[in-house]
Amino acid sequence: xxxxxxxxxxxxxxxxxxxxxxxxxxxxxxxxxxxxxxxxxxxxxxxxxxxxxxxxxxxxxxxxxxxxxxxxxxxxxxxxxxxxxxxxxxxxxxxxxxxxxxxxxxxxxxxxxxxxxxxxxxxxxxxxxxxxxxxxxxxxxxxxxxxxxxxxxxxxxxxxxxxxxxxxxxxxxxxxxxxxxxxxxxxxxxxxxxxxxxxxxxxxxxxxxxxxxxxxxxxxxxxxxxxxxxxxxxxxxxxxxxxxxxxxxxxxxxxxxxxxxxxxxxxxxxxxxxxxxxxxxxxxxxxxxxxxxxxxxxxxxxxxxxxxxxxxxxxxxxxxxxxxxxxxxxxxxxxxxxxxxxxxxxxxxxxxxxxxxxxxxxxxxxxxxxxxxxxxxxxxxxxxxxxxxxxxxxxxxxxxxxxxxxxxxxxxxxxxxxxxxxxxxxxxxxxxxxxxxxxxxxxxxxxxxxxxxxxxxxxxxxxxxxxxxxxxxxxxxxx
Length: 479
Prior knowledge:
Radius of gyration: 31 Å
């Protein structure tokens, strides 16, 4: 039977749990060093792991990532303080750096282990001060970001369609990276998260994949069998062509005037290069450039690719109040438009994330789950907003034309909305519009929106104001 020994932090005894992933004898040595400094870990199935520090000893980044993902997936352990011991650097395993709170280098001396212990215990105390919140992944994510005091960074992942992913958020929200981005974008638009640009990418305009290598093709037959050749310029007759076009014996012969070319710089020179097609023989000064999407197997002109931005996200003061209250309804400390503007400028004036961020985008159709939370917590008078139900007047057309007409209306309405406004479809031909207000800016009237849409974009709408309860009912029915 092992001896259980607690270590101290500010006079308070605290325990820890240890998971050993092995790795020949190295795991045993590393675990022994941890135990020698921190004491014996606690064991047993009845341990409350919600705030209990965890140290994972292992040397395989893939296996470490798997265990960390398991911990961050379960609601009970998603927020717990976790350190990893055994890998040399978090840069060797980017996902580990995001999923773990600390990375302890192999064979760390006692003073580094003690520093790690104090950091884990300080985080444990912060977690103990949090109220038991709702069983809500988005709320737990805000609590995670608030207690860690660091932004949610995207992790490079070649297997992801957008080249990056957010492993902590994906696990806590139990959804895909595309859905995570929708949720994070909604929270940033409403002032709960600020964001900063990490990368700027070109992606496929159809499937949003970043896997789009550039191909050089023949401008004539569009085949891929092209090669670069040195060009020859014959001074006497002015003929210019690839070197292979000049018949060769001992010296090149001009195919136009049939004179032999003897001396470079006197009779001819080599001014540059041509691209020559091995299939049809066509040659030109430049190849045809096309971006090839590996995922959907289509070719695009480079100028038609979508430009997207990848962001890091950090909680604002408004998000910290929600996180520390443990509910989307923080009582008297409710959110206000002034609070929503406290974040950096990137919180509200950047382009909108779809799978990543489309530089040409307007306000997109919102994630209904996040929109419901925002409507529930932002009730007048603390945070006034205007809610509209907009129905599209569809001419009597075939079903396919009807669908296209509604889609046109959705795109037009999206362009007409302001940066802080939101919308989502709640029926085959109807949309919920959410327009936050402030003392400086009031929402436009329903008639103004109808007139603007009809005059500027040629779309007929019927718009009426509704209350928050009715909006929530529509969201529930829309699923």
